[in-house]
Amino acid sequence: MKHPKFVSLIVLLLVFSSVAGAYWAISATHEQNDQQPNNTMPQLDIQEKIRDAAMEYIKVNHAEVALFMDKLEWTGGRVTPEGLLGAETYTYSSSGWLVTLNYPVVANPVYKITVSYSVPNEEGSISLPYAIQWEGCWLNNSIREISYCFAQ
């Protein structure tokens, strides 16, 4: 009679080792996949997504400024002073464009967006402080325009 209990114990150990082995193989595969380089484009931060969405909104809804938007390469990022709590500010610039995002640090914030474009004159100084001035906001993945001014 001890023989069936022994067989049951062996079967139980085999099942346990099979499950543990399968778990180890799956987790090792996931670990390898996590370490392999990802050939896709890097994910944009929410601030960069909002910046790009605002620029696309302006380009689509104000076609007269589209000619100023060729080959934008952005620099910038977070400019919130250290120690300031409760709000964030980001600025980005490219080819005369300046995009500023302000928002409170809360769940699902309303992002205030200001976009300006300055035209440099021949000496390199700015002849018009803001040839284009746009204000809007971002909430729930959508852009809303508040104001727009285009000075020629």
Please characterize this protein's 3D structure.
There is one protein chain. By secondary structure, the chain is α+β, with helices and mostly antiparallel strands. It folds into two domains: 1-40; 46-150, no CATH class. It has two helices and six strands. The protein has helices at residues 2-35, 46-61; strands at residues 75-78, 87-94, 97-104, 111-120, 126-139, 142-150. Strands 1-2-3-4-5-6 form a six-stranded antiparallel beta sheet. The mean pLDDT is 80.
Question: In terms of topology, how is this protein built?
Answer:
Layout (H helix, E strand, L loop, with lengths): L1 H34 L10 H16 L13 E4 L8 E8 L2 E8 L6 E10 L5 E14 L2 E9 L2
Task: Give the structural class.
Answer: alpha+beta
- Topology as a string of helices (H) and strands (E): HHEEEEEE
Helix content: 25-40%
Rg measurement, Å: 28 Å
Mean of all residue-level pLDDT scores = 80
